[in-house]
């Protein structure tokens, strides 16, 4: 039989018929009386059994004795502070990542506008045509359906690709 070391005599919990467990790494409802005025869900404290190295046990006991608090209160405070710090760190990192993503989006769009030229920039004329099959406007990427009127883009230099523009894009391009 192994000998159990409890950090605080009030941490000792006897096995109950309901759980049947009081061994290491088990949890049970504490017999600690509820705090007056606290909501019912906060009153239920739990006892957490865990194994710790002997060196850590000695350090916890020494530190608790220096602070004149029970070891269980010290451990509880350390755990609560650690979880709070981890939550704050996670939120900080998450916010920094979101900020970086937004900045990258803005920069990507700025560079995209710089690099991408207007496909109608070199147009010298537009010829009104009735489409025999659907086409996509070279500028706004809107599909122009079959049978609709669109503008065939005529450039100074011949291209292998035929460019079409919807009527609003052709009108905006010729007025610019």
Write up this protein:
The chain folds into 3 domains: 9-51, no CATH class; 68-116; 123-175, Wheat Germ Agglutinin (Isolectin 2), domain 1, CATH 3.30.60. The strands form 3 sheets. It has a 3-stranded antiparallel β-sheet with strand order 3-6-7. The chain has a two-stranded antiparallel sheet with strand order 1-2. 41% of the residues lie in helices and 15% in strands. The protein has helices at 40-43, 54-67, 71-115, 167-175, and strands at residues 27-29, 46-48, 123-130, 135-136, 143-144, 149-155, 164-165. The radius of gyration is 37 Å and the shape is rod-shaped. By secondary structure, the protein is α+β, with helices and mostly antiparallel strands.
Note the topology.
Layout: E1 27-29, H1 40-43, E2 46-48, H2 54-67, H3 71-115, E3 123-130, E4 135-136, E5 143-144, E6 149-155, E7 164-165, H4 167-175
Antiparallel strand pairs: 1-2, 3-6, 4-5, 6-7
Helix pairs in contact: 2-3
Keywords:
176 residues; 41% helix; 7 strands; alpha+beta; Wheat Germ Agglutinin (Isolectin 2), domain 1
Q: Determine the strand fraction and express it as a percent band.
A: 15-25%
The Rg value, from CA coordinates, equals: 37 Å
Mean pLDDT: 78
Strand order of the largest sheet: 3-6-7
- Enumerate how many helices there are, as a single number: 4
Report the top-level CATH class of the largest domain.
Alpha Beta
Main sheet properties: 3 strands, antiparallel
User: SSE order, as H and E?
Assistant: EHEHHEEEEEH
CATH architecture of the largest domain: 2-Layer Sandwich
User: Helix proportion of residues, in percent?
Assistant: 40-55%
Structural class by secondary-structure content: alpha+beta
Q: Termini separation (Å)?
A: 91 Å
- Shape estimate: rod-shaped
Number of domains: 3
CATH topology of the largest domain: Wheat Germ Agglutinin (Isolectin 2), domain 1
Low-confidence stretches: 1-32
Tally of strands: 7
